[in-house]
Amino acid sequence: MSNRRSFLQSTLAFGAGLAAVPKLFGAEYSNKTSPMAGMKPGASISVNTPDVRNLPFKMDGGVKVFNLVAEPVKQEILPGKIIDLWGYNGSAPGPTIQVNQGDRVRIVFDNHLPEPSSVHWHGFEIPEAMDGVPGIGQKPVAPGGRFVYEFTLHQEGTYFYHSHMAMQEMLGMLGAFIMHPKQAYTPAVASDHVILLQEYAVLPNNTVPNTMNMEYNWLTFNGKASPATTPIMVRQGDRVRIRLINLGMDHHPIHLHGFTFWITGNEGARLPEAQWMRRNTVLVGVAQAQDIEFDAIYPGSWMLHCHLPHHMMNQMSSNVGKMTRLGSGMNAGEDMESGMGMLTNSGNATSEDRGPSMGRGLGVGSTAENETPNGPLSPANAMRGMAGMDMNMSSGQMTDMLDIARDANKIPGFPQDAYMESPMMAMDKMVEKPETFGLPEGWSGYVGGMMTLVRVLPPDQYDKYLELKKRQSPNNMDNMSGMGGNHGA
Ligand SMILES: [Cu+2]
């Protein structure tokens, strides 16, 4: 186990690059910006969106005024893996907006993108002129332009906002919009969380996702790929709500370990109790939301993840098998044609006779299938291919890595998961934060993609977590999204 002093040091050092410090129980919003300001005690609690901040607001008379800025952002989806996305107010997904049922809301939208955009309020029952469809309900908002949305919200539940330009959506332009009900839902929950599901296809050594692609190698919860996702921390015995929101090209079957939950709502609203469903996996379809609730009676660090196997991995894609190996992926800075040529090993993949199937396989031609051997599973090779990664070599993880059968290479099908070289992928230190305290050493090597943990801690352990949390400097607490963007909040 790493010692606590190094833990604290790395927490402080990492704080600036750390995404959201979740606003859990008792964490304070300022009165000015609290979504819950002015609400009676016993009302709904505010939601926590791990790794994503809340959008603050100011009151103007009886109107809650938000400023939402569409802009290019640098999103660190994994330590050191920074990709160029388009989002809102410095992050993709954008900040979470929380309001109360019945609120009058004004959203001043500034477009800092190099092309027209608008904001669609998904599922809102508001006038067409406010619906955010460019060319139909409103004029597209030009680069540098502003549009003011204003409406009264009579609905309650889990909603979201997004660009109504399809490819902008696929570059990350999505955010949660939670409408708290006038009367809190029963039974009351002690904590309420939001997870936004997104997916990106990013060529090796590139930073801009290919939005035409159908094969995603980076799958994120709240803009983070596991193990960088911040676990949801729960005191044992508490009732928990998790709201899942999906906007991408795939439906995601989200599975929770250890519990049978109730599906209590969807993107339409809260469901009447008679319609709740007992499940341990909920399919979150594209453009849908699903709310789940459970009583967290069993202690443990429980996986919550998409169960599509390819969505449980990072940097996972066909035809680019070498990208974690030997450094023989695409060279940095090359154009798309050269890059794809590299991947096919024999010239320009976009030339006439090798024409790639655009939109699949990261653009690599289906007519030019090319063997991509994974190479021998030797620690030395793996290390060379992963220069710069903190692999915790001192901790005995190297020995774990040699745990393959002597004749492994003779077995048809090998390697499968060994190919991911789990222990080599471990980055415990790089993702260390109060929410990861006490996890077994090397844990981070066995997770990826759309995964997080719901950590149900017995009260004494939970208090310990709160203590660690308190020791983070207030400065770090504020610097939540830490993505290098300008949040202006
Ligand atoms: Cu999935």
From TrEMBL:
Residues 342-380, 469-489 are annotated as: Disordered. CDD domains: CuRO_1_2dMco_1 (cd13860), CuRO_D2_2dMcoN_like (cd04202). InterPro entries: Cu-oxidase-like_N, Cu-oxidase_C, Cu-oxidase_fam, Cupredoxin, TAT_signal. Keywords: Copper, Metal-binding, Oxidoreductase. The keyword Oxidoreductase applies. Pfam families: Cu-oxidase_2 (PF07731), Cu-oxidase_3 (PF07732). Gene3D superfamilies: Cupredoxins - blue copper proteins. The keyword Metal-binding applies. GO terms for molecular function: copper ion binding; oxidoreductase activity. Residues 83-183, 213-319 form the Plastocyanin-like domain. SUPFAM superfamilies: Cupredoxins. This is Copper oxidase.
